[in-house]
Every structure is written in C-alpha cells, then in structure tokens.
C-alpha cells in the first residue's frame, strides 16, 4: 500500500479531505475506489470533510471489522512510526490531533502524509476482520465527552 498511489487516485476523482478513505484502504487492504464507496455510503458526505467519528467506527463494524484500542507510548506520529515498526502482525487505525485526522499503519509502516511528522496521537485501534456478526469497537474514555461521541 503506497500513499502516493492513494493520493493520485484521490486527485483523479476530485476528492479532498479524504484521510478517512485512505486510512480505510490502508487498514483493510481494499483499493481506493472500494474504500471511497464504502466510506461515502456508510459514513462520509462527498467533498465535505471527514465523517463523524461515530459513523466511521460504525462503518468498520458494519463491514465486519473489530477495532480494539491498543496501548502506545508515543505522543506523535513520528515516534509512533518507530514504535510500531516491529508490529507487523496487524493493521492499526490512528486518530490524531483530538480526532481531526485519521491514518493507517500497515505492516509496521505509517501510510499517510503525516509520516515522520509531529502530529499528536489521540487513539490507536488494532483493526482485524472477524466477520459481520462478531465485530465491534471501543471508544477511548476521554472521547466519551467530546461532541462527536455524544450518545455513544
């Protein structure tokens, strides 16, 4: 999975603010077109920024993925990339900056424009396909009071 290829596809489609689509493609292994369709149908409004977090996480569950919060020591994307370089056993979804941006880690590598940058980490989930009936997700305790998580 290559970020430049994802970005090229986004430009060709006239898409902007599509970090949620790219992160979906990275952690699920789906191509950009499939990821775009799924995220747009289940969680995102076209060309109007990212989805609401609740809808985005629900979309993963609806498609059969389990999201499990994982512990991490890093505070920024640059250090998270180093910390997760040895974690090649799974894919990870990462929320940054208070939940405003999302990126994916696949095979121990950050696949995003923020790779090597100092964007603050807000949460990290391990993403695994388990089938539609068994899927679920966890919400970080501190997010339960944020506006995008009201009613969870």
Any overview of this molecule?
The protein is α+β, with helices and mostly antiparallel strands. Helices cover 32% and strands 19% of the residues. It has a five-stranded antiparallel sheet with strand order 1-5-2-3-4, with helices on both faces.
Which strand order does the major sheet show? 1-5-2-3-4
Rg computed from alpha carbons, rounded to a whole number of angstroms? 14 Å
User: Which sheet architecture does the biggest sheet show?
Assistant: 5 strands, antiparallel
Structure class? alpha+beta
Our estimate of the beta-strand percent is 15-25%
Helix content: 25-40%
Shape: globular
Order of helices and strands: HHHHEHEEEE
How many helical elements? 5
| Unreliable stretches covering 5 or more consecutive residues | 142-152
How many extended strands?
Answer: 5
Q: What is the overall pLDDT average? A: 81
The first-to-last residue Cα distance is 32 Å
């Amino acid at each position: 999975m290559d970020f430049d290829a994802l970005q090229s596809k986004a430009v060709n489609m006239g898409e902007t603010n599509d970090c949620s689509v790219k992160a979906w493609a990275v952690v699920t292994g789906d191509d950009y077109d499939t990821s775009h369709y799924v995220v747009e149908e289940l969680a995102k409004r076209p060309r109007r920024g990212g989805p609401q977090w609740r809808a985005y996480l629900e979309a993963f569950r609806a498609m059969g993925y389990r999201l499990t919060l994982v512990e991490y020591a890093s505070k920024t994307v640059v250090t998270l990339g180093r910390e997760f370089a040895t974690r090649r056993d799974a894919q990870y979804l990462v929320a940054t900056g208070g939940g405003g941006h999302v990126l994916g880690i696949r095979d121990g590598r950050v696949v995003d424009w923020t790779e090597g940058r100092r964007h603050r980490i807000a949460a990290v989930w391990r993403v695994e396909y388990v089938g539609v009936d068994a899927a679920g997700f966890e919400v970080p305790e501190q997010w339960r009071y944020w506006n995008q998580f009201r009613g969870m």
